[in-house]
Amino acid sequence: MKMEYAIIAAGEGQRLKDEGFPKAKPLLTLLGVPMIERLINIFADQGAKSVFIIINEKNIELHEFLVTHEFSIPIHLLVKNTISSLHSFVALQEAFPKWESCCLTTTDTVFDPKTFGRYIKEFQQGNMDGLFAVTPFVDDESPLYVTVDHDKRIVCFSDNKYSQSVFVSGGIYCLRKDAMQAAEQSLAAGNHRMRNYQRFLIDRGLMIKAYPFEKIVDVDHLHDQETAEYFLLEQKIRS
């Protein structure tokens, strides 16, 4: 089954702007490479034929980078203002229909490419409706805690940490058709946040499983850049 790869990069990046970063958040560099370019390269290494990206209308510099930079695979770009990541995901599906399955990430998610490769392989070989990256490493101001059963099936997403919640959501989602279509249904039900869409999937009885990553870094502040770069250097040394 053909799998698409998509990046949500339509946010304002206001916290980085407030701290003095002059560019669009996806252009923040990690070891000299813009975050969004790093994601595209990782997807290409996993066999992606192209990448679908949504950005907002204000990010003129990001738009110029994406349309002028030479990537190893084609970019399908949607320029549209949205109010949340969930709205961005629905907008991507409306603009580029007929996806059978996809891997969706936010632009500020930093992870080990080798672990990501194993994650993609498990999803492609499995029959679950969704496989979500999770991590025990909490590096978010408002983490979404994840509770799983003995078979790594997700049974609960929570804003609060419970004793059985050993993971947090990592911002990487592999989804099959039923789970993708549920995004629009979730919006129609009044859910306007990505975390509420994730809860909606569980409430609908879809099989959503967790795939543990040792560490996933969420880049929201300038100091997160150093954390992410140190993590990537650690991975290079290990390999």
Short description:
By secondary structure, this protein is an alpha/beta fold.
Supply the key terms.
239 residues, alpha/beta, nine-stranded mixed sheet, two-stranded antiparallel sheet, 37% helix, 25% strand
Blueprint of the fold:
Elements: E1 4-9, H1 14-18, E2 29-30, E3 33-34, H2 35-45, E4 51-55, H3 60-68, E5 75-79, H4 85-95, E6 101-106, E7 109-110, H5 113-125, E8 130-135, E9 145-148, E10 154-158, E11 167-176, H6 177-188, H7 194-203, E12 208-212, E13 217-218, H8 222-238
Parallel strand pairs: 1-4, 1-6, 4-5, 8-12
Antiparallel strand pairs: 2-3, 6-11, 7-13, 8-11, 9-10, 9-11
Explain this structure to me?
- The structure is a single chain.
- The protein has 239 residues and is an alpha/beta fold.
- The chain has eight helices and 13 strands.
- The protein has helices at 14-18, 35-45, 60-68, 85-95, 113-125, 177-188, 194-203, 222-238; strands at 4-9, 29-30, 33-34, 51-55, 75-79, 101-106, 109-110, 130-135, 145-148, 154-158, 167-176, 208-212, 217-218.
- Strands 1, 4, 5, 6, 8, 9, 10, 11 and 12 form a nine-stranded mixed β-sheet that branches.
- The mean pLDDT is 94.
Please tally the β strands and state the result: 13
In sequence order, what are the helices and strands, one letter per element? EHEEHEHEHEEHEEEEHHEEH
What is the C-alpha radius of gyration, as a whole number of Å?
Answer: 17 Å
Low-confidence stretches: none
Distinct helical segment count: 8
Major beta sheet, specifics?
9 strands, mixed
Give the overall shape, derived from the CA principal axes. globular
Structural class by sheet pairing and helices:
alpha/beta
Strand content: 25-35%
